[in-house]
């Protein structure tokens, strides 16, 4: 089975189209400007956990800077079903390696708890096991959604995937994410633990074009890439989070309490600046006009304080940017694409209409 994919050699920023094949032992690919390359399947490393409809990135031990981005679900499924090491994310064995797992569990938890609380929440956020990040993220998401309908339509889902792919084409190290749109009449977007990004119907309704949503999405992906939600959890609860990682529990009911979540998601000015910088960088690399994000910021700034169902969890969590300080200063930093770069639309008109209607 031959499928097309995108290849970054890790040396130049250019992405190349390649045809990929696999025979159970090797993954081979070539393209007009890519010589025939053979990677042993044993040496492959999956950056993402395979998720239907989402780009799946592979790298190889012989060329760790390179990225092969595959989007064919059937091909990915076949490959992963035969090679369990390609399921992606950290396994508990990886974590054990990271910590040099030679001391007793309790000592390790105590030591890590100390590190977590006192020294390095941001560092700890990057080595939390994938299963824990996902579990806690799912709990946060469920508590926030309060049973609201998760919006799906075949064309809308395809458009959302296309937008993520367009962002990933410029940013080959885009973290693994899942984006869920809920039928909630409050304008908001969040990144929670585990790369889960949550948006509302209202944010799509208020956007005047796909580049505005691509900008918001790039900002939220910035929070995911920097593991801001996880770092906040570690910073705020320290030992409790670390204990729950090792006991496999959810750390009590902390992730289902809206007031607590509002604190977790109120990122620092520094974190917001990091997410903005990530968004600007990603949009420029993907040739998507960053002025879409700027327009959206300006619009939200004007809308602040108006409308919406004030009793819902989404309202209690604060306005999309109102809880994030320094909106005016942040807008000033967003600049158009550099001269000579032709803007690529983040979605076709048809895809955009399908995405807008995803909750209908
Ligand atoms: Zn933010």
The mean pLDDT is: 82
| Helix-strand category | alpha+beta
The total of beta strands comes to 10
Sheet with most strands: 7 strands, antiparallel
Silhouette: globular
Tally of contiguous helical segments = 16
Distance between the termini: 37 Å
Number of domains: 2
Rg (C-alpha, Å): 21 Å
Which molecules are bound besides the chains?
A: zinc ion
In terms of DSSP E residues, the strand content is: 15-25%
Which residues form runs of ≥5 with pLDDT under 50? 305-309
Strand order of the largest sheet: 4-3-2-1-7-6-5
Helix content: 40-55%
Order of helices and strands: EEEEEEEHHHHHHEEEHHHHHHHHHH
What do these coordinates show?
This protein has 2 domains: 85 residues, Pleckstrin-homology domain (PH domain)/Phosphotyrosine-binding domain (PTB) (PH-domain like, Roll), CATH 2.30.29; 235 residues, no CATH class. It has 16 helices and 10 strands. Strands 4-3-2-1-7-6-5 form a 7-stranded antiparallel β-sheet, covered by helices on one side. A hairpin with a 3-residue loop joins strand 2 and strand 3. The site of zinc ion has 6 residues, from helix 8 and helix 12.
What attributes characterize this protein structure?
binds zinc ion; PH-domain like; 360 residues; 7-stranded antiparallel sheet; 16 helices; 3-stranded mixed sheet; alpha+beta
What's a quick, concise take on this entry?
This protein has helices spanning 73-82, 92-99, 105-119, 121-125, 130-145, 154-170, 201-206, 210-225, 228-237, 239-247, 258-265, 269-285, 291-303, 313-316, 327-332, 349-356; strands at residues 3-8, 16-22, 26-31, 34-40, 44-46, 56-60, 63-70, 178-182, 189-192, 196-200.
């Amino acid at each position: 089975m031959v499928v097309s994919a995108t290849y970054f050699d890790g040396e130049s920023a250019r992405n190349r189209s390649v045809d990929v094949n696999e025979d159970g032992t090797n993954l081979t690919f070539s393209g007009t400007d890519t010589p025939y390359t053979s990677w042993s399947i044993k040496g492959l490393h999956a950056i993402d956990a395979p998720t239907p409809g989402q780009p799946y990135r592979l790298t190889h031990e012989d060329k760790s800077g390179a990225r092969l981005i595959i989007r064919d679900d059937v091909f990915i499924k076949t490959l992963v079903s035969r090679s369990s090491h390609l399921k992606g994310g950290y396994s508990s064995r990886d974590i054990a390696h990271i910590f040099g797992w030679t001391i007793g569990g309790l000592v390790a938890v105590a030591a890590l708890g100390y590190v977590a609380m006192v020294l390095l929440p941001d560092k700890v956020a990057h080595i939390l096991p994938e299963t824990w990040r996902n579990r806690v993220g799912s709990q946060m998401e469920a508590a926030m959604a309060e049973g609201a309908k998760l919006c799906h339509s075949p064309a809308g889902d395809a458009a959302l995937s296309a937008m993520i792919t367009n962002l990933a084409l410029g940013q080959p190290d885009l973290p693994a994410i899942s984006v869920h749109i809920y039928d909630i009449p409050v304008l908001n977007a969040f990144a929670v633990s585990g790369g889960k990004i949550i948006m509302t119907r209202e944010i799509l309704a208020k956007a005047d074009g796909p580049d505005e949503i691509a900008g918001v999405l790039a900002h939220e992906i910035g929070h995911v890439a920097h593991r801001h939600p996880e770092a906040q959890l570690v910073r705020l609860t320290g030992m409790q989070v670390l204990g729950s990682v090792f006991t496999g529990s959810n750390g009590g009911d902390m992730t289902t309490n809206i007031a607590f979540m509002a604190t977790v998601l109120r990122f620092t000015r520094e974190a917001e600046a990091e997410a903005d910088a990530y968004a600007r960088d990603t949009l420029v690399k993907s040739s998507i006009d960053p002025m879409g994000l700027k327009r959206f910021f300006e619009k939200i700034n004007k809308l602040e304080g108006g409308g919406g169902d004030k009793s819902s969890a989404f309202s209690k969590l604060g306005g999309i940017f109102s809880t994030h300080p320094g909106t005016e200063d942040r807008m000033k930093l967003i600049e158009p694409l550099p001269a000579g770069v032709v803007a690529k639309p983040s979605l076709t008109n048809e895809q955009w209409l399908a995405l807008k209607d995803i909750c209908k």
